[in-house]
Amino acid sequence: MLLTGFSTFVWLLYMVMLVLAVVALIMAATAREDAYRAADKQKKSFWLIILGVTVAVNLFVPMLFLQLAGAVASIVFLVDVRPALQAVSGGRGRRGGSSSDGPYGPYNGGR
After folding, report:
1. How far apart are CA 92 and CA 101, in angstroms?
2. Maximum Cα–Cα distance across the chain
3. DSSP readout, 11-80?
4. pTM of the prediction?
5. For residues 55 and 4, what is the distance between their CA atoms, to the nearest angstrom?
6. For residues 36 and 42, is the Cβ–Cβ distance under 8 A?
7. Is 75 exposed, middle or buried (0-12, 13-18, 19+ CB in 10 A)?
8. Distance between CA atoms of 13 and 1, rounded to whole angstroms?
9. Rounded Cα distance, 94 and 82, in Å
10. Could you read off the pLDDT of 32-51 as tens digits, one per residue?
């Protein structure tokens, strides 16, 4: 009974690491290439390779050490690189802005 509970916990841990890696990979793939250079981070291809290998390791290689290293890479991307990319590319797009905001700022009626 104790072994069953532990194996369930380890399986959930593997699934969390896989989901974390897939989410980080999708976010890395959707960011613009020039944003990586502007934020002074590694190239987009570097992060795509690292996070792609992380997803592959989580899917096919049952070695906890490699999966933990991949989880660290995913966390570094989500906590450090992604906020820098958002700051450089203008944050979250047009959410939170006024309906009168134009591409260069708020429209003031020609004043």
Report:
1. 14
2. 75
3. HHHHHHHHHHHHHHHHHHHHS-HHHHHHTT---HHHHHHHHHHHHHHHHH---HHHHHHHHHHHHHIIII
4. 0.74
5. 26
6. yes
7. middle
8. 19
9. 18
10. 898 898 888 899 999 999 99
